[in-house]
Design brief:
single chain, alpha/beta, Rossmann fold, 6-stranded mixed β-sheet, two-stranded antiparallel ribbon, 5 helices, 24% helix
Length: 223
Amino acid sequence: MFILSQNPMETCVRLRRITGWFTTVLVLPTILGACASSSLSSVKTFEDPQYEGATFNKVLVIGVAGNYESRARWERLMAARISARGTAATAYYSIVGRGTEITRDTVIDAVRANDFDAVLLTRVKSHESDVTVKRGASTASASRMNERPADFFRYEYEVLNNPDTINVESTVVLSTEFFAANDQKRIWAVDSTISDKENVAYLIEDAVDMIIGELGKDRLIGR
């Protein structure tokens, strides 16, 4: 489990250990399921009043994922959405490359070398999946046999089992934290909940837009 340190920027030290859902949700194909039932919601979990009205112009975007491709995809999408709102944003992977692990030192080096004034970090806070299987009903087809005196039964029956339906419902909570680079303090955070009965991967873009909307509402980006 990922544990925050007393200094929030030290969060980055353990990022490389986070694997599992964040990778899966970005790359899995569609799972057989029932009719889609999806929901998105967010709640602010932290805001530092000392930073109210602060202006940030250049954001480093970091996503936690189990492999490089998934992390790059998330960071690229988030950075593009922030940039579209008028605040410069850069994906972390595009600076450090493929083979560099996410650590506190590498993040600080990237911030200093590129004059970022803020860091946006998204990680998986929790993930629950509920899998149910609906058994297919058995039916039978009958074929008539030759009507010879020796035939005791006039019909042969072949049992046909309808395929089972697998329903997967996942609920994922993403934690997004905004850090001021000058003093490495966490100044803002939201939890975003994604719930879906088929494939939460389809909601990733909506989740990104929801997070961007919260950042814009609190005027951390897009001024």
